[in-house]
């Protein structure tokens, strides 16, 4: 069955080397939902959302992400253990094997695009083996109108074949799964993994190369929203720091929750057409926008349900990384189109499990660049195999796995934009207070929201600040609707000496991590480092 809006158009995938396939083109999310149930690949939750298990992989596999090293990428990509090179001839052979694997099968094809700003639009054709993977693409990419589809010309191709397994010895992969970007052929090739995040992060990685290199536009792993005053706020942060939660604010319109561009003329635009939120411990009380977005059209991943389809969001027996994808229009208060202007506040979110960093502090341009390149948060016990106590986690630009260029290139773009636009940058610790993980407690969401609101409303302009003795961060001594005693982290610890030891240890972790960037960083960036411990 074809989506009623697309009854006039059929698609052949022969030109992609996929022969004699039965093509299901541009199916609606309802049809993809039903196909998944019919194939026994998912179940319907009590909310009406579709729930699937992504199989062996319940998260991305960074060590199995490759970029084809060729004339386009050779001199520009920052090669290493994040951007792993892959030979063009081996890519061609592997692509042909995947195309042969999909030949003769039923495949799902979707035309969509990335980038809400017309000037930056990237047309994408997605070919998936499974209907629910195609539903993910429907949710996460922008959806063309019937008129746009009539003359649709895809620029990039995503081929997604979870059932195909590579032979590392023959195919040049590390193991049986892979996600490979080819900038010359403009293909994202994904095999051996059903984790849908590889689909969206493949295009994000591509845009993280295309936008700065070709369009002088800064790509950002961030969420963004806009107030009634037209001022845009940007939230950077790694998984688990509150990026999606804090940008879903009933008093502000959501632009997007994960991936944006910042143009030369000071516009912020969403790359995506949906949200991909973590649902671990989700409650309606704490996160009503996300909770209420889980309805027909949403896709739950790796959650545990009872026989009535009720989801236990606290159950992490499959994975800590339980997720939901939904089209952005499932959120009531959104900016249409997903474009903002006049960015005035940037928030770097970190979940510091050591309980050392202040809950809010204001950064100088040098500190902003330093903390941006550092991209710090902490992993806590249970989030990954082998993690038994808090561990510092640094991910350059708050998104190293998706950044093909050297991190300092993105940081210098940010510094310039900060100065040109007069934006304020704040470091927000959504992690622990009163001690480290296991002793202290997680910062209350209502306090974090109050601090962000105070910054956005200009209520911290005239308060008194004090300098953190080790990180040199400027901490407000008071903030509306927040107890003053929690604003200086040391004061929340019973054992002040233990705090100093922990703070110096974390400062040293920052410095040690930064050694690999020092030779690329300018003096201003280097001035943002913590004091020598």
Description:
The radius of gyration is 23 Å and the shape is globular. By secondary structure, it is of the alpha/beta class. It contains 13 helices and 30 strands. Helix 1 (29-38) packs antiparallel against helix 3 (131-140) and helix 9 packs antiparallel against helix 10 (407-421). The strands form seven sheets. Strands 11, 12, 13, 14, 15, 21, 22, 23 and 26 form a nine-stranded mixed beta sheet that branches.
In short:
This protein is α/β, with parallel strands linked by helices and 533 residues long.
Mind sketching the topology for me?
Layout: E1 22-25, H1 29-38, E2 42-44, E3 50-52, E4 65-68, E5 84-86, H2 88-102, E6 106-114, E7 122-128, H3 131-140, H4 146-150, E8 156-161, H5 168-171, E9 178-182, E10 187-191, H6 197-215, E11 218-226, E12 232-237, H7 243-247, E13 253-256, E14 259-262, E15 267-270, E16 274-278, H8 288-293, E17 299-301, E18 304-305, E19 311-312, E20 323-327, E21 339-341, E22 343-350, E23 360-363, H9 365-374, E24 376-379, E25 391-394, H10 407-421, E26 424-429, E27 432-433, E28 441-442, H11 445-456, E29 465-467, E30 474-476, H12 496-514, H13 523-526
Parallel strand pairs: 1-6, 3-17, 4-5, 4-9, 7-8, 8-10, 12-22, 22-26
Antiparallel strand pairs: 2-3, 6-7, 9-10, 11-12, 11-13, 11-14, 14-15, 15-21, 16-20, 17-20, 18-19, 23-26, 24-25, 27-28, 29-30
Helix pairs in contact: 1-3, 9-10
């Amino acid at each position: 069955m074809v989506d009623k809006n697309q009854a006039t158009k059929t698609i052949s995938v022969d030109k992609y080397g996929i022969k004699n396939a039965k093509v299901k083109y541009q199916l609606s999310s309802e049809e993809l939902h039903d196909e998944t149930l019919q194939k026994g690949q998912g179940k319907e939750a009590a909310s009406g959302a579709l729930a699937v298990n992504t199989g062996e992989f319940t998260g991305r596999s960074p060590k199995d992400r490759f970029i084809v090293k060729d004339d386009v990428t050779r001199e520009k990509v920052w090669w290493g253990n994040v951007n792993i090179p892959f030979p063009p001839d081996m890519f061609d052979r592997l692509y042909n094997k995947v195309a042969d694997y999909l030949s003769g099968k039923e495949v799902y094809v979707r035309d969509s695009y990335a980038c809400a700003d017309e000037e930056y639009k990237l047309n994408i054709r997605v070919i998936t083996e499974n209907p629910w993977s195609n539903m993910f693409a429907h949710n996460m990419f922008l959806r063309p109108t019937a008129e746009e589809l009539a003359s649709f010309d895809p620029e990039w191709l995503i081929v997604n074949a979870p059932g195909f397994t590579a032979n590392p010895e023959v195919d040049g992969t590390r193991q049986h799964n892979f996600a490979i970007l080819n900038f010359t052929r403009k293909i994202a090739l994904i095999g051996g993994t059903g984790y849908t995040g590889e689909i969206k992060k493949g295009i994000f990685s591509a845009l993280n190369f295309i936008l700065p290199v070709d369009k002088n536009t800064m790509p950002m792993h961030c969420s963004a929203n806009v107030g009634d005053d037209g001022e845009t706020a940007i939230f950077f942060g790694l998984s688990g720091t509150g990026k999606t939660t804090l940008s879903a604010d009933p008093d502000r319109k959501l632009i997007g929750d994960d991936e944006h561009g910042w143009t030369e003329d000071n516009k912020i635009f969403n790359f995506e057409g949906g949200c991909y939120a973590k649902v671990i411990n989700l409650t309606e009380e704490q996160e009503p926008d996300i909770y209420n977005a889980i309805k027909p059209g949403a896709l739950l991943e790796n959650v545990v349900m009872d026989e009535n389809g009720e989801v236990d969001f606290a159950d992490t027996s499959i994975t800590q990384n339980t997720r939901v994808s939904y089209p952005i229009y499932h959120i009531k208060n959104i900016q249409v189109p997903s474009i903002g202007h006049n960015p005035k506040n940037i928030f770097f979110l970190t979940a510091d499990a050591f309980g050392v960093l202040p809950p809010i502090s204001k950064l100088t341009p040098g500190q902003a660049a330093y903390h941006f390149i550092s991209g710090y948060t902490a992993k806590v016990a249970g989030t990954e195999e082998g993690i038994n106590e808090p561990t510092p986690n640094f991910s350059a630009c708050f998104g190293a796995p998706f950044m093909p260029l050297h991190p300092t290139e993105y940081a210098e773009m940010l510094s310039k934009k900060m100065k040109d636009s007069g934006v304020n940058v704040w470091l927000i610790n959504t992690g622990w207070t009163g001690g480290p993980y296991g002793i202290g407690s997680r910062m209350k969401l209502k306090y974090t929201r109050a601090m962000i609101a105070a910054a956005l409303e200009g209520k911290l302009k005239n308060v008194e600040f004090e300098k953190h003795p080790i990180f040199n961060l400027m901490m407000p001594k008071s903030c509306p609707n927040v107890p003053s005693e929690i604003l200086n982290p040391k004061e929340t610890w019973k054992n002040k000496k233990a705090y100093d030891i922990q703070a110096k240890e974390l400062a040293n972790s920052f410095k040690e991590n930064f050694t690999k960037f020092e030779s690329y960083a300018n003096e201003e960036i280097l001035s943002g480092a913590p004091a020598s411990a």
